């Protein structure tokens, strides 16, 4: 049982200071802070709030203070008040997150703990009232900010957020841009930003799996053993902390267990633990499902046919290298009828080109096509597979290895009857 459910909701609007607006408009920061302290005290005494329409007006006033008040003391108390509102209203606070979250991310440029710490608590409370999808736009926009403190605090927030998420909770459209931003942060000149980005990437890796994260990481990061080791370290930390948070939540339930229902739930959980029932491990999502399909036909070299017909193997290889590069950059292909023609051309090169270099690149291109189209590549397997098996007479690894990868990729696109 959630202890919050045991609380009686309170309408705090009648309890607010009568001179709230007057004091918030005062030129003396002490008067502004005094009235904010009064609001904060009311929220501390009443942690569960009745959803009064006037709560929206109060949230707007507090947001204005957080955004515009030049005094750090007033801004800090406003942040604490907003945290109380978010925790007290829960999902009814959700409609305010889109306008509030960019302000919080912007205020993270303040390094002083006096404001920074309330902001951290506030953004976590705000996230608890909404979904990651609703915060995606403000997160991606905040990632572009140049201030090191803003970047590092954003990345720490991402770490805390992804630490306890399941892969199904993540908007697929967010990951590519988010990981691109974190990759940039990982090369920042500020060591705190670099470390925070590795923490965020580690939590994402914990959430979606190592192979899924690798799809989006740039070669610079993947080849950097120090950064990859740091990411793995934070992944393990996220696993441990997620379990601790889960245990703390269960303990809260136990302490609030005044009802028989909650007691029974605790007993059931205890019995399961005593019986050592294996817990299901979080499933790693298929990285392919996270990718946006791309139609590469418009990206192909305009002189593709001419170059493939060239008598100079270097020219044939150069154009094949271009196609291979396009496929590497676009691992998931949108369905286009013209792919059949491209596959036929590449198959012809693999079958007939006497130059081993050209045949090897053609094999790599066909592998990219098979992996990018998956089962839509299936109709080509009957004609392609005999050619691959025939080419295995070539012992040189330069062609043999791409052929091995190709036949495995081709097999994955079809079924055994």
From TrEMBL:
Places the protein is found: Cytoplasm, Cytoskeleton
GO terms of molecular function: microtubule plus end polymerase; microtubule plus-end binding
GO biological process, one term: spindle organization
HEAT repeat positions: 178-214
GO cellular component: cytoskeleton
Pfam family, one: HEAT
Main location: cytoplasm
Organism domain of life: Eukaryota
Keywords: Cytoplasm, Cytoskeleton, Repeat
Residues covered by the TOG domain: 5-244
Family the UniProt entry places it in: Belongs to the TOG/XMAP215 family.
Protein name according to UniProt: TOG domain-containing protein
Source organism (scientific name): Meloidogyne javanica
């Amino acid at each position: 049982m959630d202890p919050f459910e045991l609380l009686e909701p309170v309408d705090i609007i009648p309890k607010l200071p009568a001179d709230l607006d007057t004091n918030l408009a005062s030129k003396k920061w002490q008067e502004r802070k005094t009235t904010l302290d009064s609001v904060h005290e009311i929220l501390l005494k009443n942690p569960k709030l009745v959803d009064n329409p006037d709560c929206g007006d109060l949230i707007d006033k507090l947001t204005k203070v957080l955004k515009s008040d030049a005094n750090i003391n007033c801004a800090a108390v406003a942040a604490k008040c907003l945290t109380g509102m978010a925790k007290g209203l829960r999902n009814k606070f959700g409609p305010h997150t889109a306008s509030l979250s960019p302000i919080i991310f912007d205020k993270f440029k303040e390094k002083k703990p006096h404001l920074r710490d309330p902001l951290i608590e506030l953004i976590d409370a705000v996230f608890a009232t909404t979904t990651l999808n609703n915060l995606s736009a403000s997160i991606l926009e905040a990632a572009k900010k140049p201030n090191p403190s803003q970047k590092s605090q954003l990345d720490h927030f991402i770490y805390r957020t992804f630490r306890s998420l399941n892969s199904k909770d993540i908007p697929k459209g967010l990951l590519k841009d988010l990981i691109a931003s974190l990759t940039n942060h990982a090369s920042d000149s500020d060591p705190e930003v670099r470390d925070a980005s590795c923490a965020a990437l580690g939590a994402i890796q914990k959430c979606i799996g190592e192979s899924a994260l690798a799809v989006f990481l740039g070669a610079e990061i993947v080849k950097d053993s120090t950064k990859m080791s740091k990411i793995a370290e934070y992944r393990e930390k996220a696993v441990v902390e997620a379990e601790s948070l889960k245990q703390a939540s269960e303990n809260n339930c136990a302490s609030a267990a005044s009802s028989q229902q909650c007691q029974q739930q605790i007993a059931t959980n205890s019995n399961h633990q005593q019986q050592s029932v294996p817990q299901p491990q979080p499933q790693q999502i298929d990285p392919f499902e996270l990718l946006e399909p791309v139609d590469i036909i418009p990206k192909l070299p305009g002189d593709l046919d001419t170059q493939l017909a060239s008598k100079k193997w270097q020219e044939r290889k150069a154009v094949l290298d271009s196609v291979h590069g396009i496929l590497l950059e676009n691992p998931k292909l949108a369905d286009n009828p013209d792919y059949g023609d491209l596959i036929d051309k590449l198959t012809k090169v693999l079958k007939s080109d006497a130059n081993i270099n050209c045949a090897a690149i053609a094999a790599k291109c066909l592998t990219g096509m098979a992996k990018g189209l998956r089962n839509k590549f299936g109709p080509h397997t009957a004609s392609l597979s005999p050619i691959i098996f025939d080419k295995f007479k070539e012992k040189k690894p330069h062609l043999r290895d791409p052929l091995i990868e190709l036949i495995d990729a081709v097999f994955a696109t079809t079924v055994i009857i």
